[in-house]
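Final report, results section. Input specification for complex C-07:
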Amino acid sequence: MTLRTVLRNEWRLLRADRALGLVLGVFALLFAYALANGIAWVNFQEGTVAAAREGNVERVQALEAELERIEEGGRPSSPFRDPRSPSVLGGAPGAHTAVLDPGPLTALAVGQTDLLPYYYDVSIQTNESSFLQNGEIENPLNLLVGRFDLAFVVVYLLPLLILALSFNVLSGEREQGTLALTLSQPVSVRGVVGAKLAFRAILVMGLALGVSLLGVLFTGGFGSPGRVALWCAAVAAYALFWFTLAAWVNGLGRSSAWNATVLVGAWLLLVVVLPAGVNITAGLLHPLPSRVEMITAQREASNDAVNQRSELLARYLEDHPELAGGVAADEANRAALAWAATDAVNRRLEEVTSVYDERLAAQRTLVRRYRFLSPALLAQESLLDAAGTGDARFTRFRSQVREFAEHWRTFFVPSILAGERMTAEVLPGLPSFRFVDEQMREVTVRAAVPLTTLGALLVLVGAGAVLRLRRVTGPG
Amino acid sequence: MALLGIWVLNGLVAPRVAVDLSKWLHPTPSAVEFARTMEREIGSGVPGIERPDRGETTARLLAEYGVETVDDLPVNVIGVYLQESEEFANRIFDRNYGALWNRFERQGVVHEALSVAAPLLAVRTLSMGLAGTDVEQHRHFATAAEEYRRDLMRRMNGDLAENSRTGETYIATADTWAEVPPFQYDSPSLGWVLQNRTLSLAMLGLWLIGAFLVAGSLVRRAEVA
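Structure output:
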């Protein structure tokens, strides 16, 4: 009896088994549904990004029209929003929206994109509190639950399909009394179990990878083949982990019911309990400061700053001689005084947010340390990172927006301090944001850690399974 | 395996399906879109909610008090105009935020209705309601806070209008602030909370009765066999 015979017979058995066919059908539906959902989300995000870009163009056009009208002798539409003033042109009325295009594989893993902002309005008022704002408008109830995307199906549900297909590959044969007959042929137990699992693995991974590639095809993600390869590697490693675990448990030689209980227990522990436990522990050990603290600090700093503006300006000019351009604090204009106050508030906010950032970093370190406890956490991390919807890409976006905000300030502040007026001629030269995506090499290096660990786990459990199966000789 | 399947569908799949279904049935605007709508409507008003015009306000006040010039008015036109702008903006806020809150609540109804297939959804909305953390109670609080803000603005603009003349630089005294009552919030009663959750209660009741009936009939049949 060759491997081919086993595979052919398995195919026949599967076609005869209504229940298994039903389970596979349900999973095919779940996969398709998850993919459709992911694609819908990408379309929504792309629409938003396009609207934000359009907003940038429209704002500049409106300012241009108004500036030209004023140059021809017209009056500004509001005395508080005179675009000739650099603190207005560089402030909210002239703000530039910095956007992050959806990651190349967002349709496969929504990840944190529904939680973290993927666009920020950058102006001279941008400060650390701007980065704590909420992202998309979303029902809190919906945010609580999360999305039904392909990553969710792969991490949470796929193991169940694998276990349902393979919890009794060996025990079932024994219980039906077919094991003795099979082993009377020139095959080993390992060979039979291996062939049966290989057949199931081809089915399951074919389904998971097929739907993934279909999603990539629909959303043009083949532009980053490296990410697609990483995604496929993570799906394959994670799925194989569960297959080898099933092989190992089967090798223990107990009943099918016992196998099912143990494997479902493992799923519950590794996929549901441990990840939740790690997240709860991180939150308990390093709680984030409340937003109220932030608002109070901002208000107190503003009050203090307004009362000592000229002093602050003098200090500011001393600290930033490159922006001062010969302006002296005692002959400063109102906008310069206001800017000095704003800058002082920003400094204070940086102190408050640094506490927040530290706690968040501590939480992340803890999660990163304990992710090794659960293959589900490892797989989730690799999948999100491959899709570009994990922490890394957002952190990169935020730091580039920070740099851009600094660039924006250096563009306007010298004019504010010097009390200059702006004309329509500055508009084409306004700083404009462009996200520089990370190199594939960086993604690979980062994803290598969880993927290698997952691979090592796979080898470990696989070796255990081979050793156990070698000892199984036959019924009895 | 069958029980596990039910548990997975109930606990893992159904909540997420409810999210998608609720968003599909009652879509919410993107933040960018929402902000642009607000900006546009605040800028030029909508039919039925016209943006106040300072010139018109002045003319109306002049006619009301029967005087010729702004200087003869016993009130500060700016104060009156600011309050009118405030009320205009409030109506635009109510229109947009009200619609958004209503959508959130209707999305919540989808979650509750789906508990016909997954009782977890009913248990969750019910426990959130009882813990005081559901969307409705958040809205209740937010509305109270917004009411407080509006009262504060009314007082300040009224103070400016009544105690100064147009064009004057007016600085309010500490007494003006002392008159502002502190914010006091009364959380809604249990009856109010449960009234919002009647659908969840009914669904849980149905599940309870249904489970009893099914179990009862199956056990009876098992006895016969």
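Strands of chain A lie at 96-99, 119-122. Chain A has one domain: 1-476. This concludes the modelling results for the funded period.
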